[in-house]
Design a protein that fits this description.
Blueprint lengths: L2 H22 L2 H9 L3 H13 L1 H14 L6 H14 L7 H14 L4 H30 L6 H22 L4 H13 L3 H13 L4 H28 L9 H11 L11 H11 L5 H31 L11
Amino acid sequence: MTRTTRVVGTLVLTAAAVAYLVWKIELRAAIEILGDASLAWFALAVAIMVGTVPVLAARWGWLLRAQGMDERLRWLTRTYFAAYTAGQVLPTSLGGDALRVVETARRHPGRATVATGVVLLERGLGGAATVLLGAVGFLLSIGHFDVSAYLWIEGVFVFGTIVLSFLFFARSARPLLRLAQPLLERLRIASPLRAFYEGIHHYRGRPRVLGTVLVVTLAVQAVRILAIWASAKAVGIDLDVRVYYVMGPLLFLVMLVPFTLNGIAVREAFFVSFLGTLGVGANDAFAAGFVYFLVVLCLAAPGAIVLVAGGLRGGARPRVEHG
């Protein structure tokens, strides 16, 4: 993907989201709602997001250890927080992933490709867990909520995940991947997909590691959805928590789209659109989305401290490999 394509896509998507919000909300009313937001619910949302970071860091560490790169949980957690900070200034969460790859490669010289494969595999497993959680949300919503349009979208993601799982895990799919290589190279995604593919096949003999990472990821995402629920409660939106298990996975997938400025406007437009199908006013839904944005900013705050402190110390030193 060229830089021009990314810039144009970002401008178009962000402009469309802003236009939608201008059409749907009254800014003064939304600001008043935010002014009355509950700090207790906001603090709960922040605590949920921050408290799950060490678990995600440990998950990353398990994948690294299986590749012979052993790291302490303290360093993994600090780097994870720093990645969230990087994600505020670089395109979506992918910017944070790049930081983790770079920092790991600095500590394990000559293993940049392996570090990239691990991070991409972790991201892929995260996407699979998100889709699985969306399927659970679909089952929970049957007969309770009228969000049929969004359920169709989740169905597409489920189908796509099944297809991708076959392509990347089945050895019989290798001829198909080779046929697609020229197209992937033109799109400039052949290298990361190759790293992801090689990473997966390294773990074929370690199903327990992959299974544990997937289960932990699913559990963490299930807990993090409660942060979306708490953000909505902070502005007075009182919906059944099951609603957010339909909404949450879709929001997580939306935030992975590379054509956003840290999700600005796109995230809030999604809140307005989804919650609007359930009778929530546009101003309240926008306020909930903005509160969630503030929650994510708070999640990035510890990483800012880590980055400044690391810069003052001159950064990480390469680790000496043993064995």
